[in-house]
Amino acid sequence: MVREISHEIVVVGGGNAGISLTAKLRRAGLADIGVVEPSDTHYYQPLWTLVGGGCVRAQASRRAEASVMPQGADWIKDRAYEVDPDKQIVRTESGSVVRYDHLVVCPGIQLNWSAIPGMQEALSSRTVSSNYRYDLAPKTWQLIKSMRAGTAVFTMPSGPIKCGGAPQKIAYLAADYWRRQGVLGNIRVVLVLPTPSMFGVPQFSAELERVAGRFGIDVRKNSEVTEIDAGAQTVTITDSAAGTTDQLGYDMCHVVPRQSAPDWIKSGPLSTSGDQGGYVDVDKGTLQHHTFGNIFALGDAGSTPNSKTGAAIRKQTPVAAANLRASIAGRAMTARYGGYASCPLTTSRGRVVLAEFDYSMQPTPSIPLIDTTRERRDMWLLKRYALPAMYWNLILKGLI
């Protein structure tokens, strides 16, 4: 027999977006909320770069999902695989049907490890790792710590990814460690970026150019690793601007996969037409679905053209909560998301460039009187200590 569940509001996803939004809605007095989330563990993923850089233990980034689930919400411990917006139902892998009046879609982003030939297989080799997986971030640190000479390659894929600065951060942390160990001169550090500049905002790009130059990093712009041969320990680098391809041997390689909306979103009626990522088609200001007015999306699975960061979610959450409440009450939706995102760019052990910007791609600093376009010690303290504390104690509880 098919199990049927009904809630006024159904939230698909129990990550940052789903939990913080549910908490805000509960604090606003909305009682009938179901959260569809299969995982037993909740992760604060921004710490994984620091895990890979040897600055934090991996266990510090995880807590039980039950400990962050807002009190009073119905935790539907299952995985969504289909939404039927006409019937207003979510189907789950266990065979349940979850009926809703209003739906919020925030299942996160999908890591497509097999999209670049050889990447999936390379992860099991002794010289390749990725901070985009909890279980592999400690391996990244072991590779960095044991390297004394050779070539280290750090990759970034084309297309949107979560935390677009993460592929660079680990390169800088590694180079800084090797410098401190006195072996950086024996190591060729290659950073492969698909973009024409270090960062999309010129002020931050200029600072990252200085950082890369200080460490002597060979930055390959307009380029992407398009194949990995773990047996031969080589990567194929394609330069889209020059139209050239070459192979490079490595002794260590940190990889980042191409990413997209989950497959079930891409193939369903909620996705954007003609968009290769298949993200949930929402208005970039209101976060309401363009076709189905009782559906909203926020976080990495939404089509909003912002950088996919936890800071973006923090600004999207009050907008989604306010507009969802207005929609339920039949009022006009007045809250707007301006595209704010923040990326604490770790440039060494102890220094961070806090990149804050919005849809205008101009710096939008939230901390007065200090220049966050430069490397700063206080921003390292923010990244390492303040932001994790804010996440667990304030953001996930709907307090900010």
Protein described:
- By secondary structure, the chain is of the alpha/beta class.
- About 25% of the residues lie in helices and about 25% in strands.
- The longest helix is centred in the last third of the chain and has 20 residues, at about 310-330.
- The model has no long low-confidence stretch (mean pLDDT about 95).
Characteristic terms for this protein:
single chain, 400 residues, alpha/beta, seven-stranded mixed β-sheet, five-stranded parallel β-sheet, 10 helices, globular
In short:
This protein is α/β, with parallel strands linked by helices and 400 residues long. The chain is built from 10 helices and 21 strands. The longest helix is centred in the last third of the chain and has 20 residues, at 310-329.
